[in-house]
Amino acid sequence: MTAAPYTAHPAPPVDPALLSRALDTAGRLANDAAEVITATLGPGGGDVTGEAKANPFDWVTDTDRTLERHTRRVLAAEFPGHPVVGEEYGADAGADRTPMRWVVDPVDGTANYVAGLPWCAYSLALVDAAGPAVGVVADPGRGQIYAAARGRGFRANGVPVPPVRASRLAGSLVCAEDPADGVVARARAAHAGVRVLGSAALAITQVALGHAVAAVLERYHEWDVAGALCLAAEAGALVLGRDGRERAMPEGGMLVVAPAVAAEVCALWRG
């Protein structure tokens, strides 16, 4: 593996007024989503549509669609120059050509939501060429709204969260989504535990909160991770690709990790 300088590199600044407006709007949308998810969690509450995706375990619910439509309406009114990319309704025209775009996953962890398991989240991010500039993740199961903006730190229900301080892998937790063969065994050999939460957004958020030293994602979409990646960046975590280099949105898998254990966890991931 090519040596990596395992320190976070700051992204370019964004207009402060835009950051403030975006953070306020995203926070309001996250609160709206948390209320809806809490009220409808569990079998029948979200009215599964029955529409088939490629994977029959990839559920679609009325809640997903309702929340994404609401998000799109609010963002279109308040940020008409910024297109939206969402899980349920795809990308607005020009989303791949504009300097900034919104990225939303109305319910990340829909299978958990349908089953009544409260490990699901609403995720929203304002993204530019350098990555997420504003991110919010609503975690209704724990009554938390997590929010961050580039250069402004990371907050949980308005309370500042300290930077990640993990210094060792042994005795710690690693979150993983669809872990590859060998990852769990290698983590166990390193005396670390692996947890599969069923929500990429919440897996990354655990790293930002300091509950886990790393999150390993083999497959993901931008809308799954964009909001949580902003939280992680503001908490001082690294986002690495398989080559061990920092990437805003790595292809072929992603590692979000505390800097002090980045080399060790990257080696564990790569095998």
Structural notes for this entry:
A hairpin with a 2-residue loop joins strand 4 (121-128) and strand 5 (131-139). Helix 1 (16-40) runs antiparallel to helix 2 and helix 5 (200-209) runs parallel beside helix 6. This protein has 271 residues and is an alpha+beta fold. Helices cover 32% and strands 22% of the residues. The chain has helices spanning 16-40, 62-78, 110-115, 183-189, 200-209, 222-234, 262-270; strands spanning 84-86, 90-91, 101-108, 121-128, 131-139, 144-149, 154-156, 159-160, 173-177, 193-195, 214-217, 238-240, 254-257. 45% of the residues are buried. It has 2 domains: 16-160, Fructose-1,6-Bisphosphatase, Chain A, domain 1 (2-Layer Sandwich), CATH 3.30.540; 173-270, 3-Layer(aba) Sandwich (D-Maltodextrin-Binding Protein, domain 2), CATH 3.40.190.80.
